[in-house]
Amino acid sequence: MRPALSAYTIPRLPRSQELAIRGIALGAYGYGVYWIIWRWHSSLNWEHPAFSLVLVLAETFGLISMAFFIFTAWRLEHREPPPCPDGLSVDVFITCYDEPLQLLRRTAIGARAIRYPHTTYILDDGKRDEVKAMADGLGIGYIRREGNAHAKAGNLNHAFSVTSGEFVLQLDADHVPLPNILDRLLGYFNEPRLAFVQSPQDFYNTDSFTHVENDEGRQMWEENRLFFSLIQPGKDRMNAAFFCGSCGVLRRTAFEEIGGFSVQTITEDMETSMLLHARGWKSCYHGETLAYGLAPASAAQYHVQRLRWGQGSMQILRKMNPLFVPGLSWKQKISYFSSVIVYLDGAQRLVFYLAPVVFFLFGILPVKVDNHALLIRLVPYMFLTVGSFELLSRGTGYILISERFNMTRFWTYVLALSGYFAKKPLKFNVTPKGAGDVPFKTYAPQLYLAIISFSAFVWALVARHLGWIDYHDGGGMSTAFLVNGAWLVWNLYFALYVVRHSIQSRQLRGDHRFAQRLPTRIQVVMNGEATGDALPATTENINSSGLSFRSTSSFDEGALLDIPLQLATGDVVARGHVTHRASKETPYGMVYSHGVVFHDMSLDMRDAIELHSAHHAIPLSRQAFRQSVDVVANTMQRLTNPRAGKRRVVALPALVSTSTDAGDVELGIGLLEEESRGGVRLILEHPVDPGTAIRWDVPGTNISGRGTAVFSRALESQLRLSFVVGVQRMQEPRSSIWRRAKAEDRPSR
Q: What's the mean pLDDT in 399-421?
């Protein structure tokens, strides 16, 4: 069974578009070379050489980075897996240290459910008896070693020494695999010199610090998307895709040949990959999401992770510079070198953020050239650079969002440079999981930058008015003042965004709840029995501890409820108390959101919810979002039809029926996901043929209607099928349309 196309993360464009993108990228880079030559030759201000040279060096590094990006993303490798052979012996390793037990159990039961015959082991470097008891209860292996030498690399090397599988699927404690992961990856090992195959790392906590989600636009961006959708498949065409620590299958003999995982740095995955490539082994990148994990939920978790990656890369640069590793091809050398020097970007960004501050504080210009000569070169340079990045990113770049994260991590990358000079072994800091605060230090650099930038601008206004500093304006508002002012405002916006986003990223709940909209009928429990009418509702999120749901009915806090859940792993009835309730007035009536905590739930029921969430809810939710956006088509659509696709998310249960010659047929309760003036989008458990007459009604609201099904598309997971049905609303008289439009456009109170 071939998975849904949305599971593939690598953009695939027509050849004509690919050629056009490459041509534009080359043209933009050619202009960038001209710009840098002109900057060095004709624009430097030798009256202030330090400032002028530091800025032009930062610009030159940007041109080098642009060259590496074009080199890597020039052509992406798209692979289809060969048939999976039978009879291979496979071990599944789950490395852990101090992660929450429930999170580890989720991964363990997901690994146990992998269809291909295998043996699962938990590699417990935390040496916790409760982890051993859990492994014994699940019937999976448990490995514990003496000491913690060399952190994760040492843990894996020890596990290699006490197991015997020909192949190893490596999973971090938070990465839950899909049941078909081995079926999709093992076929690549028909190539005898293949050392490992890596698949993307995707994440189920879409409310994380690194996610930006647009539900109405069906767009989702995650900070690692550019790497796994663009950089890795670009490296793959050069046999330079590297192992990323999780979600990859390893050939035991290849790792044994080099003595196991290398332990010279704290980025053992990239370091070991480079050594394997230098020995003539091959790698492969399979661009299909086959496991889901936890992205950093808070700013604090994000910076811990990125600092470790950065310091490890700097260690690689010092101890085993890829440019001088024998055995690597020239393409592999460039590929690895570009990956480790990316952390110099922090110092470059610091220069760019402080340049307008220096101008406003001291009136110093880094260039000495006529304003017209500068602008006629600067404007095309900026336009071509940004445009080529967006096009070459093939709809995964999102320049404004990328700039937010450039601001977010610049100081962490500056700190990471210490790894190059560190003589003592660096500590391997595991990315924290679960609830936690956001220390001030996580956003202090951006806050200080914002304060300094604003203060410098205020100072400049005063100093210019009183004549304390010459801003080269001759008494009028100069181009230099305006350009630096715009530059400073740009930096100030992103700095303040990072401060706000970091503060808001505090994770209060200890375990993630999976986004899952399931229509259901809820009953109140009195004296141990469900009583009264079953009232329709829609779950919003769920895990094995509780859920939240939306309904047009209100339930009191403390009320005991029975909530039937039609899970892909089987039907269960969850019982729990309402812990909080919130109300919201909408154009279609009052809607109530409730939080529920389960109690007296068996372990089997909890595991059923976990597997449903990991193997069904997450893959289906991904199919609702576009992995990448066709930049050209999306821009043309917005220009030619700006109201196209304008829709309103409803997410409430609907009673759905079809009209046939034999009469109306009830389809039961479904989910009315969204509506627009033209129609509605339903999620049903049964397919509907296009052209079928459909009726829908959302109890407790003014939403109802009739129409014709225009499409019925399967939403397929490893466990079950659901169907998204698009319905075109039946034409109404013009007066009715006008009244509906006025009602929809009227703001809610």
A: 94
CATH code of the domain occupying 90-295 = 3.90.550.10
Q: Is 184:151 a contact under the CB 8 Å cutoff?
A: no
Measured distance CA(538)–CA(583) in Å, rounded: 15
Q: Which residues contact 689 (CB under 8 A, 6 or more apart)?
A: 709, 712
Cα separation, 53 vs 367, whole angstroms: 10
3-state secondary structure of 124: strand
* pLDDT above 90 coverage of the chain, percent: 72
Give the confidence band of 432 by pLDDT, cuts at 50, 70, 90: low
Q: CB 172: neighbour CB atoms within 10 A?
A: 22
Hey, CA dihedral for 211, 217, 219, 221, is it positive or negative? negative
Number of H helices, E strands in the chain: 22, 25
pLDDT given at position 1: 38
What percent of the chain is helix, strand and coil (3-state, nearest 5)?
A: 45, 25, 30
CATH class of 646-745: mainly beta
Question: Under DSSP, is residue 640 helix (H, G, I), strand (E, B) or coil?
Answer: helix
pLDDT tens-digit map of 617-627: 888 888 777 65
Exposed (0-12), middle (13-18) or buried (19+): which is 606, by Cβ within 10 Å? buried
In whole numbers, what is the pLDDT of the chain averaged over residues? Answer: 89
Q: What's the rounded mean pLDDT across residues 572-595?
A: 93
**Strand locations in 497-645 (E):** 514-515, 519-526, 529-542, 546-551, 560-567, 570-586, 589-598
Buried residues in 569-587 as b, exposed as e (16+ CB within 10 A): beebebbbbbeeeeeeeee
Strands (E) located in 491-569: 514-515, 519-526, 529-542, 546-551, 560-567
CATH code of 514-623, in short, is 2.40.10.220
Among the ranges given (251-255, 311-315, 637-641, 745-749), the one the predictor scored with the smallest mean pLDDT: 745-749
Pairing of strands 560-567, 202-203: unpaired
Q: Enumerate the CATH 3.90.550.10 domain ranges in the chain, comma separated.
A: 90-295
Amino acid at 274: M
CA 69 remoteness from chain centre: 20
Q: What is the pLDDT of residues 111-141, one digit of tens each?
A: 999 999 999 999 999 999 999 999 999 999 9
Could you tell me which residues come within 8 angstroms of residue 501 by beta carbon, excluding any fewer than 6 positions away? 209, 299, 404, 408
Identity at 430, one-letter amino acid code:
V
Question: 674 — phi, psi (to 5°)?
Answer: -160, 160
Tell me the average pLDDT across 183-205.
96
Give me the residues paired with residue 677 across strands: none
Span 676-701, mean pLDDT? 90
The widest CA-to-CA distance across the chain, in whole angstroms, is: 90
Distance CA 727, CA 692 (A): 9
Pairwise CA distance, residues 223 & 107, whole Å: 23
